[in-house]
Amino acid sequence: MDTSIMVCLVLLFTFAASVVAMNSTGDACGVCECIEHLHAVICTGKGLRELPSGIPNDTVSLELGDNFLHEIPYDSLLEFKSLIKINLTNNLIEKPFGLPESVKFLHAEGNRLQDIKPIVKNGIHLKSV
């Protein structure tokens, strides 16, 4: 095989590998819109039935409204230390879930939550519920 073709193939495979590595943040950025410079993950109206995996750890705003989420596993959001705003409106959530202390704004109307006190108690720094 010609050397120039070999070099082109090596460059092509190297480029492809770097693209895969950049997109290896998990399922969230494949299913949702991830806006890197805003540290925002927008999953509004994606038909989600569970929290997507691979949400970037530096997410500041997480939009999960208008889906079919029944549950947010209690400790699944606690690892997001930069999370300030979370929108969970119009889902089917019934059980309380934990929030990191960084969350200031929680939008959860239109769910089946009977008691929001455990969520609010955990989110002691909330400015808006």
TrEMBL record:
This is Leucine-rich repeat-containing protein 3-like isoform X1. The keyword Metal-binding does not apply. Keywords: Leucine-rich repeat, Repeat, Signal. PANTHER family: ANTIGEN BSP, PUTATIVE-RELATED (PTHR24369), CHAOPTIN-RELATED (PTHR24369:SF210). Residues 1-21 form the signal peptide. SUPFAM superfamilies: L domain-like (SSF52058). GO terms for cellular component: plasma membrane. The lineage of its organism: Eukaryota, Metazoa, Echinodermata, Eleutherozoa, Asterozoa.
